[in-house]
Amino acid sequence: MIPEYILRAILASIAVSVLLGLLSPIINMKGLAFLTHATFHSLLFGAVLGMVFGLILENLSLVMIVALIVTIIVVVLIAELEKKGFSSDSAVGIVASFVAGLTVLSFGVLYKVMASRPYFPLSENIVSYLTGEIFLITLNDLLTLVVGGIVAFFIMLLLYRDFLYLSFDPEGLESYGGNSRAYLMILYVLVGGIGALIVKTVGLITLQVVAVLPGAIALMMSSDIRKILGVSLFLTLGVELSSVVLAYFTGIPPSGLATIMLGVIYGVLLSRR
Amino acid sequence: MDMNAVEAENLTVLYGGQPALEGLTFNVEEGKTMLLLGPNGAGKTTLLRTIAALHSEYSGKLLVFGEPPHKARDLISYVPQSHSLNERVPLTAMEVVAMGSIYRESFLHFRIPTSAMDKAKEVLGFVGLAGMENRLFRELSGGQKQRVLLARALMSDPRLLLLDEPLSALDPSARVEVTAVLSKIKRERGLTMIITTHDINPLLEIGDRVMLINKRLIEFGKPEEVLRDDVVKSVYGPLARAVKVEGKLFCITGDAHIYHRREEM
């Protein structure tokens, strides 16, 4: 009999794999690795802020919602700066620096709030955001991941060709009647939203790697977009599931194992070029 | 009286509040081809982008087929410089060409409509690339890529084609290929074209008007009127020359590319 927490972990892994498997090639093709990095870091600020509100309002389910809202505000800010003529790198750098400062500040506030409350295992909660704790996923977390994941999945599927065109020639897309700003904004919000959905499963520290490497590997292996998507999806799924199994037997956090596996595969492919 | 495809009067284009182009007055009659010349940073691409409604910070009058550019968008096709494309995206020639029409129809494009695929095949044939539909764009030669972009521009049946450096980074034989397609577009479809270029000589065969700019209008008129030795020198420096050899006009700028235009006088 498989324990329920393992089943939850397996289901969460499948959801994460489908989302990142689809998103990762776009992150690589559009050159969004830096934006992804900044967006995922803003999740930490959002999570800490959510914990502050959660403690004050005695409702810790606010953590993911606040993290999601903060991340969406961050991507919208980045998009607005780009609209005003900042390069993508500069826009991300400016906003990420600001968010880093806010994160430090919010930790200070959190400690003060924690000191004024009865004990609650918040430190474990923060750690689960940093390293990911797939075995601690609750039924509620899983439900949020699946429902949010289905919405994100269909948006990605419907707009995938548009995201490809946006990556290929945004100005051409605009001149032929497309709204490249709208597509870009949707893509940024998807990156932030998917990050918020899966952060507790994958962990902030490794989220960037798991979001970038499957697509990078798939792009090294094929030039056909269907094959690229297939490789990215199955690679993410294989790595996520095997890391859960390995973690069960070794006690090493699965996110770390997944990152190492992806790094090794990428390194082997690179060395054979 | 011929209708003006583009009409500009005292047009000043701004970037961040600063003028990038000042006080341009010109018009391009429908069906004519205008070659837009100027040194690097002269504002050629800026002018094209403004006409294409991709940049809207300007003052003065600018009309495309009698309408402000954003209202005439469906009549315009813009072909950017090919090096601005992200070739990491593995699109086929067919997918690139289809991009030229599907956005006029809907917001979602999960599948390319059959009608768009049929039309894409037809225009790929028109530019001499029949049978190349499923080849990856990034694996095509420079001349083939440029012809795919021209095919994409033709997908929406535009009346005005704006081409940004269509011959840049092409070898001589590819330049001949692309020039031949441009000539065919002019001859068979009668489109108005505005073409920016650093090397005017290969395009003199199809140019009806030449506009020389350097942040402002230097000269505008028929090639024989504009491409005078003194004018070319004033823009490109003392080494530039415009010469006639055996009745043919040659323009030698910094790049010193040589081609010819048979005098029509």
Please characterize this protein's 3D structure.
The complex is a heterodimer of chains A (273) and B (265). In chain A, helix 1 (4-30) runs antiparallel to helix 8 (180-202) and helix 3 (62-83) runs antiparallel to helix 4 (88-115). Chain A starts with a helix and ends with a helix. The mean pLDDT of chain A is 88. The longest helix of chain A is centred in the middle third of the chain and has 30 residues, at 139-168. Chain A has a single domain (4-271), classed as ABC transporter involved in vitamin B12 uptake, BtuC (Orthogonal Bundle), CATH 1.10.3470. Chain A is globular. Chain A contains eleven helices and no strands. Chain A has 273 residues and is mainly alpha-helical. Chain A is 85% helix and 0% strand. Chain B has 265 residues and is of the alpha/beta class. Chain B has one domain (4-252): Rossmann fold, CATH 3.40.50. Helix content of chain B is 28%, strand content 27%. A six-stranded mixed β-sheet of chain B has the order 5-6-7-3-8-9, sandwiched between helices. In chain B, a hairpin with a 2-residue loop joins strand 10 and strand 11. Chain B is globular. The model of chain B is unreliable at 256-265 (pLDDT under 50). Chain A binds chain B through residues 28-31, 85, 157-162, 164-165, 167-169, 171-179, 219, 223-225, 228, and chain B through 16, 49, 52-54, 73-74, 76-78, 80, 84-91, 95-96, 99-101, 103-104, 107-110, 112, 136, 138-139, 152, 155-156.
Properties at a glance:
heterodimer; A: 273 residues; mainly alpha; 11 helices; B: 265 residues; alpha/beta; Rossmann fold; three-stranded antiparallel sheet
Helix/strand layout:
The complex is a heterodimer of chains A (273) and B (265).
Chain A: H1 4-30, H2 33-57, H3 62-83, H4 88-115, H5 122-131, H6 139-168, H7 170-175, H8 180-202, H9 204-221, H10 225-250, H11 254-271
Helix pairs in contact in A: 1-6, 1-8, 1-9, 1-10, 2-3, 2-4, 2-5, 2-8, 2-9, 3-4, 3-8, 5-8, 6-8, 8-9, 9-10, 9-11, 10-11
Chain B: E1 4-15, E2 18-29, E3 33-37, H1 44-51, E4 58-64, E5 76-79, H2 93-102, H3 114-126, H4 142-154, E6 160-164, H5 172-189, E7 192-197, E8 209-213, E9 217-221, H6 223-226, H7 229-236, E10 241-245, E11 248-252
Parallel strand pairs in B: 3-7, 3-8, 5-6, 6-7
Antiparallel strand pairs in B: 1-2, 1-4, 8-9, 10-11
Helix pairs in contact in B: 2-3, 2-4, 3-4, 4-5
